[in-house]
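Anyone opening a protein record will find just a pair of labelled lines. With that in mind, the following record should read easily:
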Amino acid sequence: MPGIPTTKRARRETVTSIDSSNLRVFPTIRAMVARHAPRALERLYAAIAAHPVASKIIPTQEQRDRASSAQLQHWLSLFGSSFDEAAVARATKIGNIHARVGLEADLYISGYALVLETIIESTLKGFTLPWQRRKQAKAVATLVKTALFDMEAALGAYFDAEATQRNDIITAMSKAMGEVAAGNLRAQLGDVPPAYRQLAADFHNMRHQISNLVTQMTDAAHGVKSGAHEISCAANDLANRTEQQAVSVAHISEVMRDVTVAIATTAGNARDVDGSVAEVSGHASKGGRIMDSTVVAMEKIKDSATQIAQIVDVIDGIAFQTNLLALNAGVEAARAGEAGKGFAVVASEVRALAHRTTESAKNIKSLIVTSNEDVQHGADLVEQMRDALNLIISRLDDTSSKAGDIASFSEQQSESMVALNAQLQQIDLNTQQNAAMVEESNAAARGLSDQAAGMAGIVGQFSFERRNKLRDGSADGRAEKYGGRIAPADRAA
């Protein structure tokens, strides 16, 4: 049936339609489209590839080729029959695709205009005579008329889809805002179309900010309540301690009197110690002088040992020379034969005696070396003993001085104790005043705790997320998605 399909006409009133005169030239238009549309589509998709926005919607050449082929088939089908329900359905599908991928209406219209421009211009170039142009006028007019109806069907579907998306977003946002108003700060927006993602991001940012604020208020309320409890406990503890302190102050006063007597006794003992230290220092000095004499005696022993060693060296030399003489005598006795045998025996005995003398000299020298080492070790020990005595004497002198200082300080402390007793009486008075102030602080802490509990009750009306669980667009990464509607989040107990 010629004209716009009834389903479309029922929704939108039109002042014109596709009539029989238009349908008669559809075959001519189909031939025009088959001949000139490929070049027109080539121009269109070349422009899309260069366009900063459209190129992102159809980014690859393969996608553009598929879209070009589908568009050509749509036009060939459109002019291959009447403008029926199937044609409207195809146009509606195109509009829905445009809405889904985010192709704006202005890009669609401008692209359609480029295609029509190319087809009409290419068609009219071949007709220069007036009668030829009149012949094609009906076809061109029908082409434009049909293209506008096709465009209207696609744009109607586009605007319908956009209106549906907008209504879904408004419904979802209204529901989410209602939940936020009711205190559920975990309300979620599910998946939204690209055009509304900033709105969803702003909503979630607002929700997160409110959640953070309520979290901070909750933490502050808990902190105030905890602090008030701690203050109350501290005040009670302070009251107990103040009472104990009053008892302790009285006890300290009694102890101070005993300490005063003890300090006086200590001063007398310090003077006695000073005298004893002086006596010990004298004995230590005498021991030091004895040690000095011992060191001198040890040095003399060491010198005598050195002289003995020198004498032994002389004896060792004599024994060596005697051994040589005995050896020479033995040689001469051997030359003398029988006449020198007796002399050879004597020479042998002399050589043996010289050998024993040498061995004895070596033993004596070894003993002298050992004796020198022992003497040196003894001298070192005596020297260390002398140093120790000198240190003791020095420490005794220092101790004697400090003992005198102790006696002097003890007398001063005895005088200070009198003043300290007066101060203790003042402390007792201050302690009683502190006890009264502690009771007032305890009452204020109880009031603060009650106010914190009231604040926590108000904040507890909100259902919200802790800061470490917030996520952009979802509460805990497990929120359900409902295509633009609220995804209910699990409520915390």
Remarks:
- The domain at 6-172 is CATH 1.10.490.10 (Globin-like).
- Residues 1-11, 467-493 have pLDDT under 50 and may be disordered.
- The chain is about 80% helix and 0% strand.
